[in-house]
Records
---
Amino acid sequence: MQTRNVLVVGVGGQGVLLASNVLAAACLARGYDVKKSEVKGMAQRGGAVVSFVRYGERVHSPLVERGRADLVLSLEWAEALRWAAYLRPGGVLAVDLVRILPPAAQLDHRTWQASYPAVEVERLRQAGWDVRPYEASRCAAELGDGRMANVVLLGAVSRELEFTVEEWEQALREVVPEQVVEANLRAFHAGRELPLASVSPGDVRRPAARTFRVEVTASWCKGRSCGICVRVCPEEVLAFGPDDRATAASPDRCTGCQLCQLLCPDFAVVVREEVAVG
Amino acid sequence: MIPDVRGYLRENRMPHILCPGCGHGIVLGALLRAVHALGIPQDRLAVVAGIGCSSRLAGYVDACTLHTTHGRALAFAAGLKLARPELVVIVLTGDGDGLSIGGNHLIHAARRNVDLTCILFNNAVYGMTGGQVAPTTQPGWVASTAPYGHPEPAFDGCALVQGAGGTFVARSMAYDPRGLQAILTEALEHRGFSYVEVLTDCPVYFGRYNRLGEGPELLWSQKARFGEVGQMLRDKRFVTPDGTAPAGRVEGLRFGILHRAERPEFTHVCWSQVRRGGDP
Ligand code: SF4
Ligand code: SF4
Ligand code: SF4
């Protein structure tokens, strides 16, 4: 058999490595040779994670070249765009439609809405790939734990791969921590039943904006000789006003981290989320 | 989102009298969030304090509060808890108040295992009286009464309380308000004597005498002074130009929940005796 090339991609915390470990365990259960390699350095900061899995009679190298992958399993929309070029013509792109904003895109709330790529499945199809969008995160959340989206998506693509249900179940039991095996088996089977998400050609989705309001009670603020909130704010939202008290000088940049509120010794700062009306 | 806990303050008394950049208010914020998360009603919450900057905080909490004499907060609090066991009693004390003037009350409250939560604000100086050395001032640190550097070794309050029999002993710092809140939550839930020592800072005396900067610099430097050096070096905001640890670094202080034990609780034992004897 020809060696099969798979990429499992996503962002830190989504369980990319777990999903690729399950796949590798299924390969071993079937008696294939399998090699795996991953890049996960950015995982802790919510950055990109990629895991290469190659399997077949005899595999010599773990890396997949651009344009040679049979399957890209993406746990996030923007990551699917990042890695789609690794697919061979006609390769399968299975993607969870969840959208996770990278920290860099949150730096400026005014523009990040536009800077996150829109979900435009048709354009990828035009590039010659077999695109399979799924609402895996939504399905996992309905099952009670959104973190199982990785296993739901694995279940969805398992229908395309040569392994038997028993091999998948054995792989899951090996890889997943004991106390969550049953929940993950349920997620896997829910994934096997999961229909393709309906994304119409004109369906361009953007993430919802969150806006925050920083309020400083000037009469409680001890001003420039304190300055803790002004110094701690990672977005430089706060500055000293003409009265030397802290004030939200660039309120649009606030990301709602609330460090200012946590560290103001004078209870002068409160950050609230603004709920959009209408 | 973390909640706005200003409902627990006597807002008509704010702003509080503490100096700009003083770390104590951060600790009070973490405490109020822990109280809020546990849903303790204000009329069931008693805050007892002694004398000193940190002890002034009790007066700003909208609950049952008691501002007592120097070092004696724990004694008042033990009496209150004995008479009104249904109250959640929190003691706010400083390192001078709790470890020198009130040192005896501290060890005996720990020995008796009275169900109190004692929060000791350790800023290594007597702030209110002008920056004199406290029992927690580390050797070499400068204070108004130690202009050439303190010649004495310092107390480790957590080791002291554990040795005296306290059943919940923890240490945290103002730099880590979320971790502090988690520890305070557990301390409040613990039945028995809980001691939480919080490293906070006095920019006006400690920071100025030791040339460690003002409120923000002092706060960022806590991790470097008390925490892991490796972590400090990654935290680019506070390194000396040659990349070494800053002055005043303290070795060997342990953080987190350091000790937890089960022992008969004093109030419970006393009330059982009273009930056995008939008339209270
Ligand atoms: S931290 Fe609080 S008191 Fe200090 S400058 Fe900011 S608002 Fe004012
Ligand atoms: S919550 Fe506060 S610290 Fe965080 S970005 Fe907004 S203003 Fe800055
Ligand atoms: S003297 Fe020091 S400890 Fe006291 S309020 Fe001022 S800064 Fe805080």
---
Amino acid sequence: MSLLQVQDVSVRFGGIVALDGLSFDIEDGQICGLIGPIGAGKTTMFNVVSRIYQPTSGQVMFRGQNLIDAPAHGIARLGIARTFQNLALFPTMSLLENVMVGAHSQGKVGFARAVLRIGASKENNATREFAGELLHQLGLGPLMFRPAMGLPFGTLKRLEIARALAARPTFLLMDEPASGLTHGEVDELGDTIVAIRDQFDLTVLLVEHHMSMVMGISDKVVAMEFGRKIAEGTPAQVQADERVIAAYLGTTE
Amino acid sequence: MKSLVTIKEGSIGHWVLRLLAAAIVVAIMLWIPTKGSNGLVTSATEALTLMSAAMALNLILGYTGQISIGHSAFYGTGAYVTGILVSKYEWSPWLTFPVAFLFAFVVGVLVSFPASRIKGVYLALVTLALALVFPNLLRWPKLESLTGGGPGIPNGDSALDTTGFNIGRRDGQMRNFEIFGWDPFGDLRGQGAIPFYYWIAAGIAVIVYLVIRGVVKSRAGRSLIAVRDNETAAAVMGVNLVATKAFAFGISAGLCALPGSVTAIRLGAVSPDIATLTILGSLTFLIIMVIGGAGSLWGPIIGAALYVFVTDRTGGWADDEAIPGVLRPFFGWSKIPPGSGIFAVILIVLMFVAPRGLVGVWKQYSPRVVRVVPRPAGVAHDAKPALVADTTTNSTPEGESE
Ligand SMILES: Nc1ncnc2c1ncn2[C@@H]1O[C@H](COP(=O)(O)OP(=O)(O)O)[C@@H](O)[C@H]1O
Ligand SMILES: [Mg+2]
């Protein structure tokens, strides 16, 4: 059975149909590229999986469980983590603390134990080490005590990846991780994503406009336009698809 | 930014520094009730009570980002729980503290449910309503048998009586607490017990501080700051927004009730007219917290000390003759003590030059003298970072002291 099954999902905002009966599957261990022009509904799809948006109809099955039945804060515990297209960091916190919050779903110390100091500092130290390790791996080690506020966009995009990994996910959704990067950095990020997938045993859903990178690293690509799926298959199949070509010729990439 | 001294977190130098700071705090706290005048001890008690309330408010406003102008109601809840239990049911005042905490905790949690659906100015208005309704609730005739209505519970025979503490008595005789000629508690009766009330207020302030410190330095505390900084991201990280706000509100309200209980014990009476039980109390807690530094552990402590210092110093300034020479032209116009006016000016100025309060100023400039370099987290591999082909960051390692 597929890891994730998006089944006939529709999302409406008043008159706007952001997703219109979208369906596709992702297999365990795959990197799945999700492409489409701006406004196609890619971010909306992420927000449905994160339970930030309530779909008008349809369901999203993850390991056989309907995500729509879970609350937003329950998603991380199921092993699903994400990054945000326009950054959703904690600006006053240091990079280290940002990543430590990323590990929230892995922790146990609540208010009572924090007040009574039962196992709080032990958990704190372990989380701190783990978060520091992730920051080093993503090349952010030297910046870990800086507040997130005011750092360059590309750096913060990488911080989002570190924070998502802190949840020890099995499924990672990345929303335009390469935006704001130079060409050289984009290729490098592609390698990073593959390395992350291998090291952490992840399944990845990747939204990206840099075609060479998506096509280079994806096992499978889903193309969307106007909230609908217009093509699905290997990178080569999708690139050759007429509707995909038409969709992209119609927009300035 | 260069600093004169850098100290590694957790090193011997860092511990010496921390012990020194702790020793200074303990010395001041001991000095006040032993060597200070009665006036100073009373002022310090006032400051300790206000700082406890401001610390409690800081948890929900400074750390969690949920505005509350209703904390005077939680403070008043503590005062009345203690007042009623001691005067009507003859409880020992000690036992009323946990009850006051729990009662206000429940009220706080109940307030949090509508509060977790509304934000910003709407939440301010709802909590404002709470502050305005509370004194009227106390005057409500149907509750009069409990609250004493308009006059409240007066100071008198059946009223709040610190002899209920019983710790000073044995077989009808006063027990002697003198240590080497130093009597830390006073004689535990009436006006003589001023140092005793001071110690109760100090004990509560320490408890409130330790509870809040425990929370904010843990996973739970990080989730509060996460909610303040970005609710959506916090939820995606697995933070249950409703439950987190409920706990934060509950703990904040419960802690705010404790200094309320202290006030009831100290005054030996409670009434709806006590200023800190009205909206004025909420505003005082708020101003103290903001001036000291919202979202910092020491902000409310510094803020309360400064607030009481200023209001005390200017307490007699309604009379022009009492104003020191140079300042007379500035404050001669005021026919009431200008303390709150002075504080308002401080607040306005600070909002422009230091929006993060006095502690914010300290955090900005103290690293020029002493910088505490945080303990490194995780192992820095000397080779290239595993997941980055080529490190493009050319920044130098730099630590921020907390
Ligand atoms: N919260 C929202 N309210 C109203 N319309 C929205 C909202 N979120 C997305 N949309 C609309 O849904 C459509 C899809 O948006 P989005 O998912 O962000 O596209 P993409 O990520 O593919 O660029 C757009 O027309 C957008 O304007
Ligand atoms: Mg998008």
---
Amino acid sequence: MVRTLFYNSVFFLFTFPAFAAAKKDLSFWEMIAPPEDISENGHLITWLFNYVTGANVFFMTLVILGIVVFSYLYSAKRHKKAYYTYGDKKAHILFVAACCLAVFLGVDMNITRISNEDYTKVFNKPPDPTKEDVVRIEVLAQQWMWKFRYPGEDNVFNTADDVVTLNDLRVPINKKVYFQITSKDVIHAFYIPNIKRKIDALPGKITWMWTKFMKAGNWEIACAEMCGTHHYKMQAFLTTYTQDDFDKWYKNAQKYAELENNPEDPTVFWGWKWY
Amino acid sequence: MASFEQHIHDKPTTFISKYIFSFDHKVIGKQYLWYGIFFLLVGGLMALLIRWTLAFPGHAMPIVGHLLFPATNGVVPPDSYAMLFTMHGTIMIFFAITPILIGAFGNFCIPLMIGARDMVFPSLNMMSFWVAVVSGLLLLAGLITPLGAAAGGWTSYPTLSTLLGSPGVGQTLWTMSIFVLGISSLMGAVNYITTIIVLRAPGMGYFDMPLTIWGVWMTSILNAIFIPVLGAGCLLLIFDRVFGTTFFLAGATATQGGGDPLLFQHVFWIFGHPEVYILILPGWGIVSDLLSFFARKPAFGAKATAMCMVSITVLSTVVYGHHMFTTQMSPLLTQTFMTLTMTISIPSAIFFVNWLGTLWKGSIRFTSPMLFSIGVIFVFGLGGLTGLYLATVTTDLYLHDTYFVVGHFHYTMAASVLLAGFAGIYFWMPKMFGVLMNEFWGKVHFWLSFLGLNGVFMGMMLAGYGGMHRRLYDPFVYEFLQKLIPVNTFITYSSLLMGGAQVIFVINFIYSIVKNKKVEDNPWEVGTLEWTIPSPAPHYNFKEIPVVKCGPHELGNPALKDRDFQYQTEELVRG
Ligand SMILES: [Cu+2]
Ligand SMILES: [Cu+2]
């Protein structure tokens, strides 16, 4: 016991610097940069984030300046006699009120207005599959995997020709993708870092999300809501294709689906009619 | 203003009546302090284990790891990891911060600062503490059950926290423990509110109360209203787990039932958002007072500060929906909760202007309580401002459930509250134990803690901005998070620094008590009522019930001759 303890500690001391040195080639800013935004509208979130950051840097600078400058100027050594005031003079009250108004009207209400506009007019405005060409996908979350269901040739969900994948989401770019999401057991959250969005997967309820991918490549999908011991392993892979590549894959997957889906097996039909 | 006679009781003589089942609010306050510090150390150790796992996945933490997890050669296994972060959150919020800020300071300060001989209901007070002990035992009992303690996160969302996701008895014990703790908090709250209303010394109007008392008062009101809500939620969860009801189970494949898991989230956050303010309000009060005491001038806009506490108390009850944006509530509700949440920045802005206004043209004495108080302005500034991103629905879609949230709420609930708590401990040490803590080591404790906690919580926000989500045993199974390994290593080093700094505190704290070097009655030269009596306070507090003639922050009055402050029992000197 004592010996393993000792050896482990020694081993640790030597591996320590190795961890610290890992990925040294990235600059600080590259390191903390968010995942690349590959969605049509993710820039709205980025923009608002930066706007809030600008406001926050401004106010935090004021607070820090206040602390540092006052601490320097008015330390007991430098400033023997304090100024006796309750801060209830007219000028004081006006100053406080002006600060509040600047924060509330200048920043808060601006953010609220912009965010609400983005939310109601873009993110929370579902596409209409009857009027435009969208890719519809049903997502089922369960401990600890993601299942994706495409409607197949008949374009109707929960039929035997549906294409179903496990932890493997493939979508075309430059086209709206519309997800309906639910969970089989506990609460999960469907998180696509590269579009800066997530939405809960709730048992007994269907949530939805839409996006338009703009760049082809391989990406990751995660579960963002604690869902048990292996929450951290609830990972899926996202492949964004050009339309041609997607059609090729989909046609092929369709063939396999028709061969493999056994209509007699009720577990095949975990999907639902599209809402 | 006392509505009845307060008798002087005989000094308790036996050990049990003096230190164990004591009716004395000062002893109960100290009991809460020890209780809170004990759990603070347990929760802190858990935090270090969590941090270790994140920075060095698959490597044993020296010594502690080997002692706790011999089966896996010292490495924290994934299920224990979930228990660790669940218990860390629960312990820190309910068993460390609550007892220290509310239990210890509430109990100790209220009667002393309002000029009363004790709480209005001393036996309720004693019961409140011992019920809290029962609750703590229930929580710790979870650790020795076969499937271990609760592991569904401190929020314990169903259906994960029902039998479906957590079959072990640990989760039931967790729920019971929180329910029992709620009873304890409720008893405390009722006592505090009543004491503040009926036992203020003659002449003490509400605005003559120190802001600390305002903070504790508002906290108690929120506790009295919202703890029962959490209690109800816990009770329903216990029903689901033990009696087979389906309040929180919905009708999907694996979760038969006609209930709704979201119901729990509503109930939890109706309590949970006010809880943030329950924890921070006493801290705000303490800081507002201490800034004035050590800047040697009256608190700037003290009435406005008090009224802001009131308005935040009210507002905090109607904003909880911002925790549930990703459940896709109606856009109308989203907008409402976003707007309401933003209005909290108005009273918050007033706090900051008033705090800085108190420093402005003061004659600042940089004692250790003062350093901690100024530290609170900084960390609460960061914590409050970063809340903007999360109140904003679209940025929350990205940041929700990432480490950004973790960093944000640690700044507000951990950093601010801890620093305020330390400020209080350093400041009232003479009144509690009749001693002063070592100033030099107090300052070292401050600077190391301050550096450490900013490293930890700033690092967390950066990791969250980089996309790292919460509660991951090994975040680096994701390729897009691998570049964040150095950030996580940095956070862990900072947390070790922060943890190490607390060793200095514990040694300083124990050493000063053991050494027992007596201080004068009013070492900080402050005029509130607790400093008009000897240090440490005698068991009856005030020989004569004091009569209050001026406010709590009468410092720096130029009309004063031989000292720069006056006691609340003295007529206001006019020039
Ligand atoms: Cu999960
Ligand atoms: Cu909240």
---
Amino acid sequence: MLLLDREGAKADLWTRVETLDISADKVIVPSALLQDALAARRPGQQIGVAIDNTERAAALEPYFGALALVVIAFPTGYNGRGFSIARQLRERGFSGLLRASGPLVSDQFPHALACGFDEIELPDASAERQPVEQWLAAAARISLNYQRGYNYGAVANILEQRRAARRAGAANV
Amino acid sequence: MYRYDEFDERLVRERVAQFASQVARRIDGSLTDAEFLPLRLKNGLYLQLHSYMLRIAVPYGTLHARQLRQLARIADEYDRGYGHFTTRTNLQFNWSKLKDVPTVLGLLADVEMHCIQTSGNCIRNVTADHFAGVAHDEIEDPRPIAELIRQWSTLHPEFEWLGRKFKIAVSGATHDRAVVKSHDLGVRIVRDPASGETGYEILVGGGLGRTPFAAKVLREFLPREDLLAYLEAVLRVYNLEGRRDNKFKARLKILVHELGIEALRALVEEEFAHIDKARVNADPQEQARIAAYFAPPAYEDLPEVSRKLEDAQIRDPELARFVEHNLFRHKKRGYTAVTISLKPIGGTPGDITSEQMRAVADLAEKYSFDELRVTHAQNLVLPNVKLDDVAEVYEALKAHDLATANIGRITDIISCPGLDYCSLATARSIPIAQVLSHHFADPEKQKQIGEVSIKISGCINACGHHHVGNIGILGLEKKGVESYQITVGGDPSENYALGELLGPGVPAEYVPEAVDKVVSVYLAERQQGETFIETYRRIGLAPFKAAFKEIADVAA
Ligand code: HEM
Ligand code: SF4
């Protein structure tokens, strides 16, 4: 697995468990165990949850304050449901880390970032063909977007730019 | 017409570079073929039977002369000297080479064009009424919101990876010329009876293909400022709830069918309520900025009737026929919208040569304020011609084999490429169109038959809209031979209806006779002033079925 974000590759400090064996400092549990894991949480321990793309953002809403990470599974690269789940999580106020996990292609990195993801967890087979440099290049390739509310990094929103130009124009008259 | 500002331009240029990088990464093995496929489709590049095919977006069917000239140049230098206009008002080049594609995309960007999202599981090229802005029955010009939707849907980060394609059409007139009800999402501009304000009626879940459905009303009246937030809500619900287990059940129409429109409405309204509208919607000033590009051109004040055209028609009966069939009533007195038929007798519907493209571009500049439209019926329109100029335009068209006077008549046939090009085809469709066109070539016969549409698809995917043809023809394969199913009664307009099957499929050689039978029933049964479809609605399927049976029995 390769974990990467806008800065490049990064170490994965999280431990994934399938049971309530939650001794590590940062653990990711399946959603079925989330409530129990949060109840058993030690002071200073961080809990994350891994969800399938058939699960819904609204189900996590009660835990937003306590959750440090949400991992959304992408079963294939071309199944884009996870983008909408991420967007809903952000829109409903989740401010922890958001991770996309699955065989995405680097051209989807800007989509993931714009929808609110922070990092991508990539299977080795994909990572071997698509090194980190390709992901960083992909994130910078299109410098503009039309969709308001999907801003990230240095990408400029065209409607905001036009609005700014209108204001500047009005100020100059 | 809309013109790119610096941002539109930069985005398209960057998209060209992105595609070039995708091709390079496919060649060096970074991307597998399976990974590259959706990326190339999102840029309109298909692999057909004999070659790559490149589909170029003509957003809401609007073109200007310089763009059409550039398409002519691409046809000459990078293809085989012709292009094909489709039922979604795009232009296809059938003989593209992968190595040329990045250059062609650059040439398109030079004239504010692209291939973005002309294929793939994303929001496709938005289509509109081809008489937008000039139609006499218009509530409001739909092009400004079509352009707003074009921009909003372009490279939308959340909706680039939908379960299936998503097609949007907009209409601003009382009469539906945009086949709104066969789209995943239709926007109709309507006037609120209480306030007098214009807003949008939103329809969803239309589609043709193997399971045709008519779109249903999702929202009766949406205020103008909320358009983008509402579209975002619909697309998000579709992205989350649409089926992913079966490609044939992945369109929005299936979700509407399985959930029911009320349940879908509840989901959309809930999502809409959650969306921070101020964060998503375009400013009214932005809507106004776009609308300003579509302000009417500098029309002259002219009399209602052109003596010049009246006199010319008396001298030339062929011109009179052209005037009768190919002109559409304009908003502005003394002007008309001239439809240029790409259906010469025996031709390939929608095909146009580079030389014809240049001729049409010249006419647009000289006679139509530099404007052109592409229709879903695979024809072109000069939307702003003075009645005084029609005879000259007609002469010029005639010189390029573009003056066929058959708009809305039986030889104005819609046809998909079928087995001559398409790798999904189960039968040929272009040759059927050509045979029928010859069969009904006589102008007097066409005049007698009047308004009727034939639509042909080469497989169940229905790219030729056969479901909504007054006479629909679907090419299938039965035990290794082509077999054609015929339907009657389809209607793409506000009286939307899917055609009904006449009986078993017949071999290609029986198709003209079968269509003859159908037409004869109409001619025998029609009452004063009735069109084909009106007679059908009155007398029903049975008489057509009975007449068809004679042919089917012989063919069997
Ligand atoms: C030649 C390559 C083409 C291929 C491989 C292709 C493929 C398809 C497929 C698979 C569908 C069914 C989609 C579905 O129901 O989800 C479809 C529908 C359609 N295509 Fe094509 N097509 C091609 C060319 C064209 C052309 C030339 C036109 C216009 C003449 C066109 C316009 C349409 C339209 C209008 C539909 C109906 C969509 C609906 O169900 O709403 N396509 N196409
Ligand atoms: S209807 Fe079938 S044969 Fe015709 S273009 Fe579409 S996919 Fe190809």
